[in-house]
Amino acid sequence: MAKIVFIPGKNPKPAPDVHKAQLWRCLLEGVRRANPEMHADLAEHGNDFHVVNWNRAYYGVETSMTEDLPWIDALLHQHGPTAEDMEEARQWRKQLTWVTYRLADHFPRLIRLFADDAARSTIEETHRYFTNMGGSAEIAHARAIDALRPLLDDGEPVLLIGHSLGSVIAWNVLWLMTHELGVRRKVDTWLTLGSPLGMRFVKSRLLGSAHVGITRYPGCIREWINVSAVGDETALDARLRDDFYEMIELNLVENISDHLGRIYNHYRDDEGLNPHRIYGYLVNPAVGQLISEWWYRQLQASRTTQRSSLPSR
Question: Are 285 and 34 in contact (CB under 8 A)?
Fold first, then answer.
C-alpha cells in the first residue's frame, strides 16, 4: 500500500504521537478542501502516514502541543486567508527581514549583527546541522533512513514530504541512499514545503555539492514538487527547478515543478501571521490537491494490479 513519509523542520516538537495526530488532521483537511472523495479514502489510512521523529534525539527535549492547539483549531475553522492575511504576507519582501535573509545568504557571518531573532535562529540552526555538531546531522539522517529504506526495499510507493530544514535532511538522505547505501528504488514523489534549498548558503553545503555530474545529486526521486507560500521567509529563493534543472537533463528525475504565486499559508498564533508553519501548508487546498492527486494515482495503480492478478476465465 502507498505510504506518506513526513520529515519535519527545525525546532523541538511535541511527543511523536501527539505531533503526528495534528499533522495528519491538517493534511486530511487540506485534502478534504481540495477533493472530498479522496479525503474519504485517505482518512482510512492513518497507519500509512509516517513521521520521521528526528527532533527529540537532535534537541534532547519535547514541547507541549497546548499552546499550538487553539491556533490549529482556528486554522482548521477558517476556510482560507483573509484579505488582511494576504496583504501582510505580500508585504514581507518590502520589509527589513527580507533584506536580512538576502544578506545572510551571501555573508553568513554578518547575521549576528543585523538579523532579528527569527532570522538568526534559522541561519544558526542550519549552520549547526551542516557542521554536524555533536553528530546532530547523523542522528537526523539515521532516523529518516530507518523510516524510508524499508518502504523502498519493499517496493512501496512513497510520497516523501519535507518541510523547511526537513527538506534539506531529505536531500542528504536521498543522496546517501543513492551513492553510499546502494538504494535503487525511487521515492515516487518528493514534495518540499517552505524549503530553503534554493539558498546559496544551503546549496553549497548539500551532500554532493562538490561533485560534478550524476554523483552531485540524489538518484532515487521520480518526481519533485516544490511549494512555497507567499511571504515564507525561509524559502528565500522559492524557485527550485532552475537551481536543480541539471537533474532533469541527467535523467535523475522526470520533472521538477514549482508551485508559487497565490499560495497563502494563513497560520496565525499570538505572535501574528506565520506563513512558514507546517500546519498552514498542509491545510492549504493547493497542497491538498497535490496529495489527493498522488493518492488517486496510487489507488488506480493498485486496482490495475489487482485486476491483472485475477485468474482468467
Answer: yes
**Longest alpha-carbon distance in the chain:** 76
- Tell me, what amino acid is at 156? E
Q: How many CB atoms lie within 10 A of CB 177?
A: 23
Residue labelled with grid coordinates 479525503 = 39
Helix 285-309 / helix 16-34 crossing angle, nearest 10 deg: 90
Q: In whole angstroms, what separates CA 246 from the centre of its chain?
A: 21
User: What is d(CA 28, CA 22) in angstroms, rounded to the nearest whole number?
Assistant: 10
Alpha helices in 218-284 (DSSP H): 246-249, 278-283
Following DSSP, what letter does each residue of 14-30 receive, concatenated? S-HHHHHHHHHHHHHHH
Of the CA atoms within 13 Å of residue 262, those in its CB half-sphere come to 4
Q: Residues, the chain, total?
A: 313
Q: What is the pLDDT along the chain (313 residues), one digit of tens a residue?
A: 899 999 999 999 999 999 999 999 999 999 999 999 999 999 999 999 999 999 999 999 999 999 999 999 999 999 999 999 999 998 876 565 666 666 666 666 655 554 556 656 666 778 789 989 888 899 999 999 999 999 999 999 999 999 999 999 999 999 999 999 999 999 999 999 999 999 888 899 999 999 999 999 999 999 999 999 999 988 878 999 999 999 999 999 999 999 998 899 999 999 999 999 999 999 999 999 999 999 999 999 887 766 665 565 5
Give yes or no for a contact between 276 and 234, defined as CB atoms under 8 angstroms apart.
yes
Contact at 8 Å (CB) between 214 and 180? no
CA angle 85, 91, 92 (to 5 degrees): 100
Contacts of 16 (CB under 8 A, 6+ apart): 51, 53, 56
C-alpha of 155 from chain center:
22
Question: Under 8 Å CB-to-CB from 58, ≥6 apart: which residues?
Answer: 136, 139, 140
Closest to 135 measured CA to CA, from 39, 47, 57, 27: 57
Instruction: Tell me the C-alpha to C-alpha distance, in Å, between residue 138 and each of 56, 160, 172, 226, 233.
Output: 14, 19, 10, 25, 27
